[in-house]
Amino acid sequence: MYVMFRPIHPQPSPGARIPTIMTRPTAGLLQTLFPAGVSAAIWPDGEPVPPLYPEEEACVGRAVPKRRREFAEGRACARKALEALGLSHVPLLVGPDRAPVWPSGAVGSITHCAGFVGAVVARRELLKSLGLDAEIAAPLNPDLARRICTARELAWIDTAMPPAHADWLKVFFCAKEAVYKCVAPVTGAALDFLEVEVAVASSLDCFTVRFAEEVSIVTPDTIRLSGKIAATSTHVVAGATLQ
């Protein structure tokens, strides 16, 4: 059973397809996934690895080169986004849950996958939490469908045209990852994919969420969780927000 509310799974219009932008995701596209006041930044593909603060170096001292690069690029994006909020020269360490430790008064999320690194931040007075996820725009193995999507979600997917360069299974995976990143800092809950149900709007660009009854994280905060999705020719991106 699922609680919170019963989001309707609206049928997409005949022939409707999630719009696809024929570029890599931009900072501007990331900002469209969130309310006004959220700052976003991406790391240009191929740019030299930015230096870390000494405190951050200690967090990845034993990491392999690939992990060090992802960590450094993600922190550089986050600092660039924080500067737009007036927060400069801030080391971003790693918390017990391996998530970034944001400066006092700020919330944020970092994502990285092949070919893309981005971050979003906001003032805590504006949002309680936010989550950002990006995935390569390629279909997932269909054998994973029942591990990621509920029966209701799979029934909806059967009625909707897939994104041009990915599939709805990848979109739902991305959306649920964004939801987890948004919820975890507030509740501490470790969610399974099937404990989160996403209902995509008929416009195919936003979604609502409900949680399985046994999750027990329904609060006045999580009830206000919502999200948006977007697709480009290279990546699928999703943002989730707690207001």
Layout of secondary structure:
Blueprint: E1 2-3, E2 20-21, H1 27-31, E3 39-42, H2 54-57, H3 65-83, E4 106-113, E5 116-123, E6 129-136, H4 145-148, H5 151-157, H6 168-187, E7 196-200, E8 206-212, E9 225-232, E10 235-242
Parallel strand pairs: 2-9
Antiparallel strand pairs: 1-8, 3-5, 4-5, 6-10, 7-8, 8-9, 9-10
How would you sum up this structure, described in words?
The chain has 243 residues and is of the alpha+beta class. Helices cover 24% and strands 25% of the residues. The chain contains 6 helices and 10 strands; from the N terminus they run ββαβααβββαααββββ. Strands 1, 2, 6, 7, 8, 9 and 10 form a 7-stranded mixed sheet that branches. Strands 3-5-4 form a 3-stranded antiparallel sheet. The longest helix is centred in the last third of the chain and has 20 residues, at 168-187.
Q: Helical segment tally?
A: 6
Our estimate of the beta-strand percent is 15-25%
Question: What is the CA-atom radius of gyration, in angstroms?
Answer: 18 Å
**Average pLDDT figure:** 86
Class by alpha and beta content: alpha+beta
Low-confidence runs of at least 5 consecutive residues: 1-8
Described by its quaternary structure, the protein is single chain
Shape descriptor reads: globular
Taking the sheet with the most strands, its summary is:
7 strands, mixed
The sequence of SSEs as H and E is EEHEHHEEEHHHEEEE
Q: Tally the beta strands.
A: 10
Distance between the termini: 25 Å
* Percentage of residues in helical conformation: 10-25%
